[in-house]
From TrEMBL:
Residues 10-80 form the Release factor glutamine methyltransferase N-terminal domain. Gene3D superfamilies: DNA helicase RuvA subunit, C-terminal domain (1.10.8.10), Vaccinia Virus protein VP39 (3.40.50.150). One of its GO terms (biological process) is methylation. Substrate binds at residues 191-194. SUPFAM superfamilies: S-adenosyl-L-methionine-dependent methyltransferases. The keyword Methyltransferase applies. Belongs to the protein N5-glutamine methyltransferase family. PrmC subfamily. It comes from Aliidiomarina sanyensis. This is Release factor glutamine methyltransferase. It catalyses: L-glutaminyl-[peptide chain release factor] + S-adenosyl-L-methionine = N(5)-methyl-L-glutaminyl-[peptide chain release factor] + S-adenosyl-L-homocysteine + H(+). Residues 108-201 form the Methyltransferase small domain. It holds the Pfam family PrmC_N. Its EC number is 2.1.1.297. Methylates the class 1 translation termination release factors RF1/PrfA and RF2/PrfB on the glutamine residue of the universally conserved GGQ motif.
């Protein structure tokens, strides 16, 4: 029980200091997001009313979340929310917390696919981030999104519903297994698991709290990328685009694989840190 009274400014200062000692990346932002969640307010309110007193219940809830953040829990799991492409998405431990770098894939898709009536398939949709971002920009695209994990499918459907994109067709599927063999897509996108099982990142930060089903693939992380590249040829229209997010070191190997599989116009887009992140290619019937 927290007996003392806190203003917004004092609570932020204390939360920031406590978080900084354990998780030094973005302590002030973390404290702000946790307090906004408890108060049900936006960031402007925090800046406008720094002298506003928290109730004891609000202070207790906030400092309980700060304590869990100090234990390493991702802020997005504590608030249940992460913004992607300006869309507020519900998140939970069943899948990946959407990353800003994945917006590079969305931007490439919107730039390269000009048809207003494109058919689109997203493989491994998780929260639905990519599919819903695309639908928000292209309301007439016919988008199907799949995930293998039942709870992720439920989460993506919940996000589609709450954001008003219930026309997105969200299915449980082991990659292409639930997609009829005669369906063809102008665009296939995926951010599949691509970490090797011994990748050091698995033991760091938020990643420790995310499921291996969303992160790890065999063959040094390349197995799912290669499987999707191979199978997509049976589901793309002539000239259709395949766009794959991958690890910063996997670009050259993936480009080589795509070339051997007969894809053309292969290139890799860089992420916000100037690292190779999204490889794109067009299917050409041989
Ligand atoms: C890296 S996460 C990407 C989630 C989301 N698209 C994003 O970018 O934030 C990979 C997703 O692929 C899903 N996945 C893993 N294996 C799969 C499979 N065999 N078939 C379909 N989805 C799969 C995972 O459950 C997870 O949601």
């Amino acid at each position: 029980m927290n007996e003392s009274r806190w203003t917004i400014a004092q609570a932020l200062m204390r939360g920031r200091t406590q978080i900084e000692a354990a998780v030094p990346d973005t302590p002030l932002l973390d404290a702000q997001l946790l307090l906004m969640h408890v108060l049900g307010c936006d960031r402007t309110t925090l800046f406008t009313w720094p002298e506003h007193m928290l109730t004891p219940v609000q202070a207790d809830s906030y400092f309980a979340l700060v304590a869990r953040r100090i234990d390493g829990h991702p802020v997005a799991h504590l608030t249940g929310l992460r913004e992607f492409w300006s869309l507020p998405l519900a998140v939970n431990p069943s899948t990946l917390i959407p990353r800003p770098d994945t917006e590079v894939l969305v931007a490439q898709a919107l730039e390269k696919v000009e048809r207003p009536d494109a058919t689109v398939l997203e493989l491994g949709t998780g929260t639905g981030a990519i599919a819903l971002a695309l639908q928000s920009e292209q309301p007439n695209w016919e988008i199907t999104a799949v995930d293998y994990v039942e709870d992720a499918v439920a989460l993506a459907r919940q996000n589609a519903q709450s954001l008003g994109f219930s026309q997105v067709n969200i299915l449980q599927s082991d990659w292409f297994s639930a997609i009829p063999r005669n369906h063809r897509f102008h665009l296939i996108v995926s951010n599949p698991p691509y970490l090797a099982s011994d990748d050091v990142h698995l033991k760091q930060g938020d990643v420790r709290f995310e499921p291996h089903s969303a992160l790890v693939a065999e063959d040094s992380g390349l197995a799912d990328l290669i499987h999707i590249a191979r199978e997509s040829r049976d589901f793309l229209t002539e000239g259709g685009w395949l766009m794959l997010e991958h690890g910063a070191e996997q670009g050259s190997e993936l480009r080589e694989v795509l070339q051997k599989l007969g894809y053309v116009q292969i290139y890799t887009a860089l992420d916000y840190a100037n690292l190779e992140r999204v490889t794109c290619a067009r299917f050409a019937e041989s």
